[in-house]
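Posting here for the record, re: zinc ion.
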Amino acid sequence: MQDYLVLVAVLLALLVGLSTGKAWERYKLVEGRWIDRRRVRQSPHFILGLNYLVAGRVDLAIEELEKAARLDTGAFELRLVLGNLYREKGQVGRAIQEHQSLLQRPRLNKVEHANVLLCIGLDYRRGGFVDRAVAAFSDVLKLDPENEAALINLEKLQEDQHQWHEAYVTRKRLAQIAGPPDQPKSQSILAFLENELGLQAFKAELLDEAARRFEAAIDLDTSVIPAYVHLGDVRLRQGDLAGAVAIWERSIDVTPDRAYLALERLEQAYGRMGAEHRFTELCRQLTAAAPREWRARTALARYLTAANQPARAIELLFEALEHNPHALAIHQVIWNTLSLLDLPKPLVARYIEITRQSVFYLDPHVCIRCRYRSTELLWQCPHCHEWNTFVEERIAPATDTEAEIPAGLMP
Ligand SMILES: [Zn+2]
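Prediction output follows.
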């Protein structure tokens, strides 16, 4: 019986303790008034605000969440989110003000402090205050050295300012934190950064250094094609024509669908070696391997036209055009070749027939991440800042089943 009473007493004490704790969690003393924290989350304004947010109606979401925030002036997360919404709306000054007022609060714990600083960094970045953004993200990392969001933002800021070395160091840290599952992506980004470092060295005429950087890029990720193209350029500058040709040919072996990037360079190099036949062979090989490859056809046609064989060239060009009616470059070469042939009526009629059904548009390169369009192939998207996300979009007959997106680039 004694034992039983003791047990009940202990349980009672526990219950009292728990409910006091609950009450403490639920109520909070703010400026001499007890505030029911639960009221904020249960207020219709809070729920309505979230609903508007989900529906993408930021203005209405802000309105409701502001009303909810008035119920509890201490609501930390809510104020943080409100600040972020102001930023999304483009009201950067207001966002900074909101977030900085949170920083003034006493008794912020380390996580809260880091979160506010991260948001301030994002505000500054959005407002274009680069130095302040860098400082804010660096402060986050002092509190939380493994904060991925801060590292990613820092990396993008460094890339924007072409601080390739700093971006490289940041990416290394990210790769370490992410561990094996994310390693291939980091390897690829590091390879592109090495390539940029190589270009910097190349511009400064530091040829050995540049070659080392481009080689390191290829070692990190064999599919980083610009590194091959530029390494060939360095070899050429070093007087090593055969070495340049070898590296450009290797780039074509690695990704035949981007072969055109080295095509013009190879044409000139083969010419200098007196081995023009290797160029025509290469173009034929590329065309046979990928029936829709238009640049190899166009390059070969240009070569044949220059070699005084415009009639053979025009057949190749019509083939190229059937697969890629949007490529302006083909039209230009066709008209050039037709003019050389004195505009024979049957050929002009064929040209009109091939193009009649085509829809034309510019900017065939598209970022598979954010759908940004570009006339040129870009290695880093100017919109979402991702590396190696551009593919060439083509209009083609429905029967054509050749893959559009290289397997390695599938999102
Ligand atoms: Zn993009």
